[in-house]
Design a protein that fits this description.
rod-shaped
Length: about 50
Protein backbone atom coordinates (compact mmCIF):
# COMPACT_ATOMS: atom_id res chain seq x y z
CA UNK A 1 0.00 0.00 0.00
CA UNK A 2 1.05 3.52 -0.67
CA UNK A 3 1.30 5.83 2.35
CA UNK A 4 -0.60 9.04 1.50
CA UNK A 5 -0.51 10.61 4.95
CA UNK A 6 1.76 13.61 5.21
CA UNK A 7 3.78 14.50 8.25
CA UNK A 8 2.41 17.79 9.45
CA UNK A 9 4.81 19.78 11.59
CA UNK A 10 2.78 21.92 14.01
CA UNK A 11 3.65 25.57 14.28
CA UNK A 12 5.33 26.66 17.51
CA UNK A 13 2.74 27.67 20.06
CA UNK A 14 4.78 30.45 21.68
CA UNK A 15 6.56 33.21 19.84
CA UNK A 16 10.00 34.22 21.04
CA UNK A 17 9.68 37.15 23.41
CA UNK A 18 11.98 40.08 22.97
CA UNK A 19 12.89 43.28 24.70
CA UNK A 20 9.48 44.92 24.36
CA UNK A 21 7.89 42.08 26.32
CA UNK A 22 10.44 42.60 29.10
CA UNK A 23 9.79 46.35 29.18
CA UNK A 24 6.05 45.76 29.48
CA UNK A 25 6.44 44.15 32.91
CA UNK A 26 5.29 46.49 35.71
CA UNK A 27 8.06 45.72 38.26
CA UNK A 28 10.76 46.50 35.72
CA UNK A 29 9.06 49.72 34.66
CA UNK A 30 8.69 50.82 38.31
CA UNK A 31 12.37 50.08 38.92
CA UNK A 32 13.44 52.02 35.82
CA UNK A 33 11.17 54.93 36.76
CA UNK A 34 12.69 55.13 40.26
CA UNK A 35 16.23 55.06 38.88
CA UNK A 36 15.30 57.71 36.29
CA UNK A 37 13.77 59.95 38.96
CA UNK A 38 16.87 59.63 41.14
CA UNK A 39 19.08 60.58 38.21
CA UNK A 40 16.83 63.52 37.37
CA UNK A 41 16.76 64.78 40.95
CA UNK A 42 20.54 64.52 41.27
CA UNK A 43 21.04 66.32 37.95
CA UNK A 44 18.69 69.16 38.94
CA UNK A 45 20.41 69.41 42.32
CA UNK A 46 23.84 69.64 40.70
CA UNK A 47 22.75 72.19 38.11
CA UNK A 48 20.69 74.58 40.22
CA UNK A 49 21.63 74.16 43.87
CA UNK A 50 25.41 73.71 43.78
Amino acid sequence: MLDTSRDHVPAPTEEPRGCLFALSQPPLMIFLAVIGCLLLISAVHDLFLL
